[in-house]
Amino acid sequence: MSAQTTEKVSLSAPGTWRDPDSHFEIAMTHPWYRMLLQLTDVMQRATAEFWAQRNVRAAYLPVTTGSISSPMGLGSDSSPVRIELEGVPTYLADSMQFLLEYGCRMWEEGCYYVMPSFRGEAPDSTHLCQFYHSEAELPGDVDAVMETVEAYVRHLAGAFLKEMGPTIAEVAGDTAHIERMLSLGTFPRVSFSDAVALLGDSPEYVTELAEGARGLTRKAERALMDKYGEFVWVTQFDHLSVPFYQAFEPGDPSRARNGDLLFGVGETVGCGERHTTAEEAREALAMHMVPEEDYAWYLRMRELRPMKTSGFGLGVERFFLWLLKHDEIRDLQMLHRVNGRQINP
């Protein structure tokens, strides 16, 4: 199928996130939000189809938790959202990956969900306070889950091209980027250390939150995508720069068995292998200076049922940014939500 192209981009976002109190009145009749509803529908159906073919089960999970997956310690990349529920301090889910790991002990082929995640940071053009996560936890190592991620994003891309190709072309200008993803073999991979060596260890490209805890800037992600052809994995991050639950590289606890898939605005999928045993998880908790008692049940699960699993999370709205060649993620919420403000409906 050849890439679809449109001469004129006419379906554009109205930018109603700038005045969220009047958003719903405009959105009811605006074609942008009719399109967004179509996007979410295709995402949901295509995701369910993909996992059904692999005998992976959907899990209905709560949105409250006492065990956040980005605890306030080394490697935390987000702020948790704490609430009081009937007098009990709790958190809104930043991810329910831990419960997907729990689900793997019940169904060994794996579990998945598409559900909201809550973060405490202020929104910007690539980040939302409340966004949708398509997450899965599967048996096996990080290489196996990376292969599954590639199959999943191709499946999504194919479904969107088939069902919404002309609409996407109207917004994006063409569908060549979708065709390009579908034509690729295995996506290229570069280790974090090799990426730093390639780009240069300067603040322009590398951030350092603490000693041994480095990350890549958005400029670095863009440079790597330009070099490798947009779709590229960055692997083996400094362990102290990722959450404690990522497994250690064999023989090198300073590196994590993880990977970020860059495309579109940058990191769109994050994945990693988990610690198999309670002893490994305890070592990581101590390294990251996270209180062990906060994750006692997580350690106990490994004592009762050691299991090698790996998982990933895809940011749905970030995937849509790539799909539409758009640059403002706040245009991709059906209903706006901003921390610290009541917005109706």
Can you name the CATH architecture?
Answer: 2-Layer Sandwich
End-to-end distance: 41 Å
Mean pLDDT: 94
Q: Which class of secondary structure composition applies to the elements?
A: alpha+beta
Strand content: 15-25%
Which residues form runs of ≥5 with pLDDT under 50? none
Shape: globular
Total count of strands: 15
Question: Can you describe this structure in just a few lines?
Answer:
The protein has a single domain, classed as 2-Layer Sandwich (BirA Bifunctional Protein, domain 2), CATH 3.30.930.10. The strands form 4 sheets. It has an 8-stranded mixed β-sheet with strand order 1-5-6-15-14-13-10-7.
Word description of this protein:
The chain is an alpha+beta fold and 345 residues long. It has one domain: BirA Bifunctional Protein, domain 2. 36% of the residues lie in helices and 22% in strands. The protein is built from ten helices and 15 strands. Strands 1-5-6-15-14-13-10-7 form an eight-stranded mixed sheet. It has a three-stranded antiparallel sheet with strand order 2-4-3, with no helix packed on it. A hairpin with a 2-residue loop joins β11 and β12 (252-256). α2 (31-53) packs antiparallel against α4 (142-172), α4 (142-172) packs antiparallel against α5 and α8 packs antiparallel against α9 (296-304). The protein is globular and about 55 Å long. It starts with 19 loop residues before the first helix and ends in a 21-residue tail after the last helix. The model has no long low-confidence stretch (mean pLDDT 94).
